[in-house]
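Journal club prep — side note

Before the paper discussion, L.F. wants everyone to see what a predicted structure for a comparable chain looks like in token form. Sequence:
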Amino acid sequence: GDAASVLSFCRRLLAWRRQHPALIEGGIRFLASDGPLLAFERCHEGERILCAFNFGDARRRLETPHSAEGYADSGLSFGAHIDDEVVQLAGWGLLLAPLKKTEPGGPQTS
């Protein structure tokens, strides 16, 4: 199949979700966002993941409490870029970014 197809991306997304218990059973903390942005953190047993979605056509900025160095290397994104404490999301972009365990704060598990 085509690695750039929507079907391939959905398969990668579902496989990535299965590898991260915080996305399945974790607590949730919503982050302040405006317009068509949805942003939250999921946390479970020390794993924290920033989830950000742009449900609009225009590029959007999301200010987060995390510096770029606070993110782990393995994430999943489409049209997303992290610059300091700002996530840039292209229209219809998304970011699923694990946070390094050394960074303090974040939601408590439920």
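L.F.'s comment for the group: The helical segments are 6-18, 22-25. Keep this in mind when we get to the figures.
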